[in-house]
Specification:
Blueprint: E1 2-5, E2 8-14, E3 22-28, E4 33-35, H1 42-54, E5 64-66, H2 72-75, H3 78-85, E6 88-92, H4 93-105, H5 109-119, H6 126-130, E7 147-149, E8 154-157, E9 160-166, E10 175-179, E11 184-188, H7 209-220, E12 227-230, H8 239-261, H9 268-272, H10 287-306, E13 310-315, E14 318-323
Parallel strand pairs: 4-5, 5-6, 6-7, 11-12
Antiparallel strand pairs: 1-2, 2-3, 3-4, 8-9, 9-10, 10-11, 13-14
């Protein structure tokens, strides 16, 4: 646990089997508010409870929880804390819409994953994927949102005033929260100090997540911020510089993919296999990491397609991209 400023504490919630190691939850003590909770495991709960207590607050006293987005490492303990305290959950209204959409579609996760893998040119992995068919059974649970938030809304809390910035890209419902008086930005996964947030596209969804992400970076450019509080890695201060680095990263990645395509026609998996990934080479990735990388590749290809730089076609159920 680390004190950031008067009444604001950073809690390191452990996250096993993930190279990031932990998610940061932020406790606004005067407002009895948690921003993100971490994963839903016993050791994560113990870490959250112990560190909140060290900051002078019991989890039973929490009045509100504000997840920056609906990924499991951010909402895993929301229901646990809500049961203990009766806390209200605040999230962007898109979180409600996204969950309703998934519920209404009643997506078969195995069929979706299989079809997506084939569509992106990964048919050789379908035999491997078949081993996990039963792991995809069951329905994803929804998180009940008590207070939907809007972009630009101001939350007047005890000891803190937070302005909501809707920042889709990493997740459609992602928000950042700006405390102008304390000059703090609660950045979630939108801007991280060293790694680039995962921006990907699921093939059954429409949209342009990379385009959304780049526009969302501009929403927070120019804010009066001295301290950026991300959900992972470490606290940093140069928000403007990091935004510029993110723009350059995605510009370079788009150029790299265009060079890979050159004068040929390629599938998403073929392009992904030639990208110089920052984490590890493609040949060293297991299937699930390759699938994430392919989704990220698809987001970049759709971004370029939407801007007239690539041609997209489907041949025998497989996506192909070529230069225009």
């Amino acid at each position: 646990m680390r004190k950031i400023s008067e009444g604001v504490y950073q809690i390191e919630v452990p996250m096993r089997h993930n190279p990031l190691g932990y998610t940061y939850s932020y406790l606004l003590r005067d407002a009895a508010t948690l921003i993100d909770t971490g994963v839903g495991t016993r050791d994560a709960f113990d870490g959250l409870e112990e560190q909140a207590r060290s900051a002078g607050m019991e989890l039973t006293e929490i009045k509100r929880i504000i997840p920056t987005h609906l990924h499991g490492d951010h909402i895993g303990l929301v229901e646990t804390v809500r049961r203990l305290s009766g806390a209200k959950v605040y999230a962007h209204r898109t979180a409600i819409e996204r969950q309703k959409e998934s519920h209404d579609k009643d997506v078969d996760l195995y069929a979706e994953t299989r079809n997506e893998t084939k569509l992106m040119g990964g048919s050789k992995y379908l035999g491997f994927l078949r081993r996990f068919e039963n792991s995809f059974r069951g329905r994803m649970s929804s998180l009940e949102i008590d207070e939907p938030l809007e972009n630009g809304q101001t939350l007047e809390l005890e000891g803190s005033t937070l302005k909501v910035y809707w920042t889709p890209g990493h997740a459609r419902e992602h928000i950042c929260l700006h405390d102008e008086e304390k000059r703090i930005l609660y950045a979630g996964d939108h801007v991280l100090p060293k790694i680039t947030p995962h921006v990907s596209l699921r093939s059954h969804l429409e949209g342009d997540p990379l385009g959304d992400y780049i526009e969302s970076l501009e929403k927070i450019r120019g804010l009066d911020v001295e301290t950026v509080l991300p959900a992972h890695q470490y606290v940093f201060s140069d928000l403007e510089g990091r935004i510029s680095e993110m723009h350059l990263h995605h510009k370079n990645r788009c150029e790299e993919m265009k060079k890979i395509i050159s004068d040929s026609r390629n599938t998403v998996f073929e392009i992904s296999a030639k990208v110089a990934w920052d984490s590890r080479p493609w040949t060293e990735m297991e299937f699930w990491t390759k699938r994430m990388a392919a989704r990220e590749t698809l987001a970049h290809l759709v971004y370029l397609r939407n801007r007239g730089e690539l041609k997209e076609e489907v041949v025998k159920g497989v996506l192909y991209y070529s230069l225009t």
